[in-house]
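Example record used in the benchmark description.
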Amino acid sequence: MPSAVPRLDLAPKLKRPLSLLNPFDYLRLLYWVFYFPQALRWYVDTFGGGDGGSTDGTWQARLERLLRNSVNRQLLLQGVLLTEVTAVLIALGLARLQIPISWGGVAGGVTVGVAVGVALGVKVGGAVRVAVSGEVEET
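Model output (C-alpha coordinates):
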Protein backbone atom coordinates (compact mmCIF):
# COMPACT_ATOMS: atom_id res chain seq x y z
CA MET A 1 0.00 0.00 0.00
CA PRO A 2 1.51 3.34 -0.99
CA SER A 3 2.11 5.96 1.66
CA ALA A 4 -0.54 8.64 2.03
CA VAL A 5 2.13 11.28 2.50
CA PRO A 6 3.66 12.44 -0.79
CA ARG A 7 7.45 12.55 -1.03
CA LEU A 8 8.94 15.99 -1.41
CA ASP A 9 11.78 16.47 -3.84
CA LEU A 10 13.96 18.93 -1.94
CA ALA A 11 17.06 18.50 -4.09
CA PRO A 12 18.45 21.77 -5.43
CA LYS A 13 17.40 22.66 -8.97
CA LEU A 14 20.98 23.05 -10.17
CA LYS A 15 21.82 21.65 -13.59
CA ARG A 16 25.54 22.52 -13.69
CA PRO A 17 28.56 22.39 -11.37
CA LEU A 18 29.37 25.46 -9.31
CA SER A 19 31.72 27.92 -10.99
CA LEU A 20 34.77 29.52 -9.39
CA LEU A 21 34.10 32.74 -11.32
CA ASN A 22 30.40 33.17 -10.56
CA PRO A 23 29.86 35.17 -7.33
CA PHE A 24 26.28 33.87 -7.06
CA ASP A 25 27.65 30.34 -6.73
CA TYR A 26 29.55 31.44 -3.62
CA LEU A 27 26.30 32.81 -2.19
CA ARG A 28 24.58 29.54 -3.09
CA LEU A 29 27.33 27.59 -1.32
CA LEU A 30 27.04 29.81 1.76
CA TYR A 31 23.26 29.25 1.77
CA TRP A 32 23.76 25.50 1.47
CA VAL A 33 26.23 25.42 4.36
CA PHE A 34 23.99 27.28 6.80
CA TYR A 35 20.42 26.52 5.71
CA PHE A 36 20.45 23.42 3.50
CA PRO A 37 23.49 21.24 4.32
CA GLN A 38 22.06 18.10 2.71
CA ALA A 39 22.45 19.94 -0.62
CA LEU A 40 26.23 19.55 -0.27
CA ARG A 41 25.92 15.76 -0.24
CA TRP A 42 23.47 15.96 -3.17
CA TYR A 43 25.97 18.13 -5.06
CA VAL A 44 28.86 15.72 -4.46
CA ASP A 45 26.69 12.72 -5.40
CA THR A 46 25.36 14.42 -8.55
CA PHE A 47 28.42 16.20 -9.93
CA GLY A 48 31.36 14.81 -7.97
CA GLY A 49 31.04 11.11 -8.66
CA GLY A 50 29.42 10.31 -5.31
CA ASP A 51 32.56 9.24 -3.43
CA GLY A 52 33.35 12.52 -1.66
CA GLY A 53 31.37 11.66 1.44
CA SER A 54 32.83 8.21 1.88
CA THR A 55 34.39 7.50 5.28
CA ASP A 56 36.21 4.34 4.21
CA GLY A 57 39.98 4.20 4.49
CA THR A 58 42.58 6.50 5.97
CA TRP A 59 42.39 10.27 5.80
CA GLN A 60 45.08 10.20 3.10
CA ALA A 61 42.95 7.90 0.96
CA ARG A 62 39.90 10.07 1.48
CA LEU A 63 41.86 13.21 0.58
CA GLU A 64 43.21 11.49 -2.55
CA ARG A 65 39.67 10.49 -3.60
CA LEU A 66 38.49 14.03 -2.94
CA LEU A 67 41.26 15.61 -5.00
CA ARG A 68 41.03 13.09 -7.85
CA ASN A 69 37.73 14.55 -9.07
CA SER A 70 37.85 18.10 -10.49
CA VAL A 71 34.35 18.99 -9.21
CA ASN A 72 35.24 17.91 -5.66
CA ARG A 73 38.57 19.74 -5.89
CA GLN A 74 36.77 22.89 -7.05
CA LEU A 75 34.21 22.60 -4.22
CA LEU A 76 37.05 22.33 -1.69
CA LEU A 77 38.72 25.42 -3.18
CA GLN A 78 35.44 27.33 -3.13
CA GLY A 79 34.91 26.40 0.51
CA VAL A 80 38.37 27.65 1.49
CA LEU A 81 37.96 30.87 -0.51
CA LEU A 82 34.50 31.45 0.94
CA THR A 83 35.81 30.96 4.47
CA GLU A 84 38.68 33.40 3.98
CA VAL A 85 36.66 36.05 2.15
CA THR A 86 33.82 35.88 4.68
CA ALA A 87 36.25 36.30 7.59
CA VAL A 88 37.91 39.31 5.93
CA LEU A 89 34.54 40.92 5.12
CA ILE A 90 33.37 40.47 8.71
CA ALA A 91 36.62 41.99 10.01
CA LEU A 92 36.31 44.93 7.60
CA GLY A 93 32.68 45.43 8.60
CA LEU A 94 33.58 45.48 12.29
CA ALA A 95 36.43 47.91 11.59
CA ARG A 96 34.04 50.13 9.62
CA LEU A 97 31.71 50.14 12.63
CA GLN A 98 34.75 51.07 14.76
CA ILE A 99 34.49 47.95 16.87
CA PRO A 100 37.99 47.13 18.12
CA ILE A 101 39.35 43.66 17.43
CA SER A 102 42.05 42.16 19.61
CA TRP A 103 43.89 39.99 17.08
CA GLY A 104 46.00 38.45 19.83
CA GLY A 105 42.80 37.36 21.55
CA VAL A 106 41.43 35.99 18.29
CA ALA A 107 44.62 33.99 17.66
CA GLY A 108 44.66 32.70 21.24
CA GLY A 109 40.99 31.74 21.08
CA VAL A 110 41.46 29.87 17.82
CA THR A 111 44.50 28.07 19.20
CA VAL A 112 42.75 27.02 22.40
CA GLY A 113 39.60 26.06 20.48
CA VAL A 114 41.47 23.84 18.05
CA ALA A 115 43.54 22.23 20.82
CA VAL A 116 40.49 21.49 22.98
CA GLY A 117 38.51 20.24 19.96
CA VAL A 118 41.27 17.85 18.89
CA ALA A 119 41.85 16.61 22.45
CA LEU A 120 38.15 15.99 23.07
CA GLY A 121 37.75 14.39 19.64
CA VAL A 122 40.56 11.94 20.31
CA LYS A 123 39.32 11.17 23.82
CA VAL A 124 35.65 10.73 22.87
CA GLY A 125 36.55 8.83 19.68
CA GLY A 126 38.73 6.42 21.66
CA ALA A 127 36.04 5.93 24.30
CA VAL A 128 33.38 5.24 21.68
CA ARG A 129 35.69 2.82 19.85
CA VAL A 130 36.35 0.92 23.10
CA ALA A 131 32.65 0.91 24.01
CA VAL A 132 31.59 -0.36 20.60
CA SER A 133 34.32 -2.94 20.00
CA GLY A 134 34.92 -3.93 23.61
CA GLU A 135 38.69 -3.99 23.23
CA VAL A 136 41.48 -1.46 23.53
CA GLU A 137 43.44 -0.80 20.36
CA GLU A 138 47.22 -0.67 20.71
CA THR A 139 49.08 2.03 18.81
